[in-house]
Amino acid sequence: MSIITDLDEGNIISTSFEELSEEKHQDYLVAREHFKAQFLKGFKKDQKGQVTRAQDFVMPSFTLKNKQVEEISDVSTSSSDLLSQLSSIMDQKIADMYKPRDDLLANLKGQLDIIKNGKSVDGNCFIQTAEPNLSAALAFAQQPLYGMLMSYFAGKTPPPQMSQPSTAGPVRPMHRWST
C-alpha cells in the first residue's frame, strides 16, 4: 500500500469562507485590513480632492501571530538595488586593494620631502604598511637576486666592489679524456 504525498490540484480540497471558524474569520479580517491599508498607501489626494496613484502596488508579505500583523522583510530586492549594493561592495574592495600601495607612496613622498630639506634618510628604514606580507615582500625585493644588484642591467659596468676577484681559487681548464 502506498501513501500519496504529492500535492497537486487533484488532491487538494478547498474550503469556503463560511466553513471557517470564528477565530479564522477574525484572522481574515485583520489580514484584509492590513492589505487594504497597504494598498491605499499607493494613492495620494490633492487639494482638489482628486485621487491619483502615487506608486505601483506591491503585494505585501506578512504573517499573523496572535491577531497581530507581522510584516516579512523584503526577500527579493529590485535589480537596481542589487546593482547599487554590488557597486558599493566593489568600490570598497578596490579601495582596500590600493591602500597598501597608497601607504607606500605616502611613505616614499615623506622620505623625498626629508631629502629635499637636505637631511639624509637611513637606507635601511622600515617601510610600514598595513599588510605585513607586503612589508616582507618589500624587504625581500631590496635584496640582490642571485647576487645581482637590483640596479644592474646587461651592458652596465658593475660597481667596483663587484668587479673585484673573489677569494675562490683560479679555475683550471678541464682535460678531456679520450677512450
Outline of this structure?
The protein is built from 4 helices and 4 strands. The chain has 179 residues and is mainly α.
Key words describing this protein structure:
single chain, 179 residues, mainly alpha, two-stranded antiparallel sheet, 4 strands, 8% strand, elongated
Note down, in words, how this protein is organized:
It is a single chain. The chain is mostly helical and 179 residues long. Among the domains are: 17-71, no CATH class; 79-144, no CATH class. It is built from four helices and four strands. It has helices spanning 22-40, 79-116, 132-141, 160-163; strands at residues 43-45, 51-53, 62-65, 68-71. The chain has a two-stranded antiparallel sheet. Strands 3-4 form a two-stranded antiparallel ribbon. A hairpin with a 2-residue loop joins strand 3 and strand 4. The termini are far apart. The model is unreliable at 126-130 (pLDDT under 50).
- Low-pLDDT parts are 126-130
Note the overall shape.
Answer: elongated
Q: How far from one another are the termini?
A: 93 Å
The string of secondary-structure elements, in order, is HEEEEHHH
Average predicted local confidence, pLDDT: 75
Alpha plus pi helix count = 4
Order of the strands making up the biggest sheet: 1-2
Q: Classify the beta-strand content into a percent band.
A: 5-15%
Main sheet specs: 2 strands, antiparallel
